[in-house]
Amino acid sequence: MLAASHSWHRLQPRQSLTFAASAVRSRSRITFLNHKLMIELGRYQTDHMPRETRLCPLCKLTQVENETHFLLQCSKYSLQRQTSLNQINKIIPDIERKSTSESIKLLMNSNDYHVNKLVTKFISLCMNIRDTLLLSSESDVT
């Protein structure tokens, strides 16, 4: 029988659990390539867009909107990225100085609870920002 003094088994308030579930869902989609970034959407369109034309619809960098661009390069998430990386840098020193591929590995494959929580929160926040911006640009057209 488990001792009642262990804090890891206590449930959080319902709102925290709901946010955590949606954040984890966003991270899982990035990890398992089940997301709405152009790199994936273009692959499954009826006319199959060539990879090099699956550009980010949000920034002016004219780069393919893939997982790396979303996590580390898109200018639309620069404030959120900097905030997250400042916190992550306390756990993984000099992460901003690492190569892009090394940064992705460190962020997405970390065994550190706090890094995973920060990355998951960042992905969820940016996915929400992306959805909101794309919806507002669609409504501007109509």
What does this structure look like?
- The chain is mainly α and 142 residues long.
- It has 6 helices and no strands.
- It has helices at residues 14-31, 38-44, 67-73, 78-88, 100-108, 113-141.
- The longest helix has 29 residues, at 113-141.
- The radius of gyration is 17 Å and the shape is globular.
- The model is unreliable at 1-19 (pLDDT under 50).
Question: What is this entry, summarized?
Answer:
It contains six helices and no strands. The chain is mainly alpha-helical and 142 residues long.
The amount of helix comes to: 55-70%
Stretches where pLDDT falls below 50 for ≥5 residues?
1-19
What is the 3D shape? globular
The SSE string, one letter per element, is HHHHHH
Summarize the main sheet: none
β-sheet strand percentage: under 5%
Structure characteristics:
single chain, 142 residues, mainly alpha, 6 helices
